[in-house]
């Protein structure tokens, strides 16, 4: 078991380093073209919507049985019209080098590089249900005001946080969880969740 764990760590480290290498190239090219924000956003859509939502596409990208030409045809067919040519070309380069299985690692590294370039902080936000646009904007504004920097949210959903949320910025934690009040909050979760959460958010950011 120890040997397997060490092997997994080596693979994870290799994927991370590979992701950083490709991400630096992509972000550099996108920045030179003046479309860094667009490319980063579109790469996120590729990973979060297309790859995450399609086991077939994920398998095709990772399969050693599909040759480069077939993977390029898949990229053209799915992404050729909707996505920027720079990103499409980048995906084809990854296909040619047998690296499409690591698109997720490239996306993570590209986000980190872009955040660093902009001097932007990443706040991880856990809530019981997905944030709506109004609450998301309010969190970004208030955390940005507290930290005196632009903020990007990394969101996740945890049903155990009914009626509350947990926000982390580096080592700092803003905790408004009321998971110990499940019986009370469960009756309210479907009505006015965002307004209740927004009120609680204002309370703990002003403390």
Write a structural description.
The protein is α+β, with helices and mostly antiparallel strands. It has 2 domains: 2-115, N-terminal domain of the delta subunit of the F1F0-ATP synthase (Peroxidase, domain 1), CATH 1.10.520; 120-205, 3-Layer(aba) Sandwich (Glutaredoxin). The chain is 63% helix and 11% strand. It contains 9 helices and 4 strands, in the order H-H-H-H-H-H-E-H-E-E-E-H-H. A 4-stranded mixed beta sheet has the order 2-1-3-4, covered by helices on one side. A hairpin with a 2-residue loop joins strand 3 and strand 4. Helix 1 packs antiparallel against helix 5. The protein is globular. It starts with a helix and ends with a helix. Residues 1-11 and 178-191 have low confidence and may be disordered.
Oligomer: single chain
- Largest pleated sheet: 4 strands, mixed
In what range is the share of β-strand residues? 5-15%
**Count of helical regions:** 9
Number of domains: 2
Q: What characteristic shape results from the CA principal axes?
A: globular
Unreliable spans? 1-11, 178-191
Distance between the termini: 47 Å
CATH architecture of the largest domain: Orthogonal Bundle
Strand order of the largest sheet: 2-1-3-4
Q: Helix-strand pattern, N to C?
A: HHHHHHEHEEEHH
Q: What value does the average pLDDT take? A: 80
CATH superfamily of the largest domain: N-terminal domain of the delta subunit of the F1F0-ATP synthase
Give the helix proportion (percent range): 55-70%
Q: What name does CATH use for the topology of the largest domain? A: Peroxidase, domain 1
- CA radius of gyration is 20 Å
Q: What top-tier CATH class of the largest domain fits best?
A: Mainly Alpha
Total number of strands: 4
């Amino acid at each position: 078991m120890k040997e397997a764990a060490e092997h997994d760590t080596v693979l994870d480290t290799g994927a991370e380093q590979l992701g950083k290498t490709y991400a630096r190239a992509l972000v550099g090219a996108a920045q030179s073209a003046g479309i860094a924000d667009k490319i980063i956003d579109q790469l996120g859509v590729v990973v979060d919507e297309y790859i995450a939502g399609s086991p077939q596409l994920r398998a095709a990208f990772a399969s050693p049985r599909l040759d480069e030409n077939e993977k390029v045809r898949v990229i053209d067919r799915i992404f050729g019209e909707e996505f920027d040519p720079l990103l499409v070309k980048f995906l084809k380069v990854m296909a040619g080098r047998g690296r499409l299985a690591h698109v997720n690692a490239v996306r993570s590294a590209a986000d980190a590089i872009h955040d660093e370039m902009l001097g932007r902080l990443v706040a991880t936000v856990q809530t019981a249900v997905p944030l709506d646009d109004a609450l998301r904007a309010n969190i970004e504004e208030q955390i940005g005001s507290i930290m005196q920097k632009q903020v990007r949210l990394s969101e996740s959903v945890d049903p155990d946080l009914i009626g509350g949320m947990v926000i982390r910025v580096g080592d700092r934690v803003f905790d408004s969880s009321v998971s110990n009040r499940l019986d009370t909050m469960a009756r309210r979760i479907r009505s006015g969740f965002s307004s209740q959460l927004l009120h609680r958010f204002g309370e703990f950011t002003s403390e």
